[in-house]
Amino acid sequence: MIESSVELSVVIPMFNEEEALPALAKRLRPVLDGTGEAYEVVAVDDGSTDGTAEQLARLRTGWPQLRVVRLRRNSGHQAALTAGLHHSRGHYATSLDADLQDPPEKITEMLALARSRRLDIVYGVRANRSSDTPFKRRTAAAYYWLMRRMVGAHVCAQAGDFRLLSRNALDALKALPDQPQVYRLLMPWFGFPSGEVTYRRDPRVAGQTKYPLRKMILLAVDSIISFSVAPLRLAIWLGALAFCVCLAMLVYTLSVYAAGDTTPGWASLIIAVLFIGAVQLMCLGVVGEYIGRVYTAVQQRPTYYVADDAGDADDADDAGDADDPGDRVPSAAGACP
Ligand code: UDP
Ligand code: MG
User: Fold this and answer.
1) Most exposed of 28, 75, 87, 172 (fewest Cβ within 10 Å)?
2) pLDDT of 234-248, one tens digit each?
């Protein structure tokens, strides 16, 4: 437990958000100043390659509560969130997206609810997703349908990464080994006393989504593999199904053989070989995914590296931090990506 004078940390992971940043600062700052709380904004620059770092440095000159934690390279939304939550010093920390899809005004409501009912987690729950594109709505619905079946009914279909955590919950997070996390599944799993605040999800204020289909699929695979062994069980069921089909084929083959008519077996043979081959490859793939995660876990490489933490005077405890934190803007990336 850290002793800090900061009451509220606002963690904002951002990747190439130069277009959204001015609107974010304009709307967020009055809300936070208006709370009368001692606060800090932990902006996690997730290896942005546009003008995000310059904008943050500029904003910092007139906004002392803004801290910029810059990651050395793009580590992904969940890893950037981890970095921000690990570095936040507040008694409460809330996380929200940089694109103003999560309304900052709701932070006050979340904090009041957490305090009045002594809650450790307050989830921001979307009242509806009408502002999302039909594609986003469908993929999100499929994702949560799958998660609720594979991980458990406690996964809320309308809660994303807009939530408030108490220091208790933050310490529980910090105590976990540094492995890729999917927070929307992890937080309910802890079982802390929790509540909800509903909100209307607005459209992205500027710029493009940073979650293309490829990243969505990766998040879905991470979510399933890190919380469920159901695919391994599915592999067993597929194996059982293949075994039954093989038995049927065996009976058929023997009866054809007994009738002395063995030549026309080519088609069934090919089908059987292809079927068994496909099932085996699928099962191998599933097992491979799990082995891959175990391999990554035993390597114990941190999920993110902090290049610098502008605004933190004493960040000597950050094993992965660069030596010299400060207000500098990163120099252009080297020749190799
Ligand atoms: N983000 C990030 N690293 C990434 C991808 C996204 O820090 O590799 C941030 C992004 O800047 C935003 C938040 O994660 O603040 C959510 O991303 P986005 O709004 O693009 O996702 P969507 O709302 O479209 O699902
Ligand atoms: Mg968004």
Assistant:
1) 172
2) 887 887 788 788 778
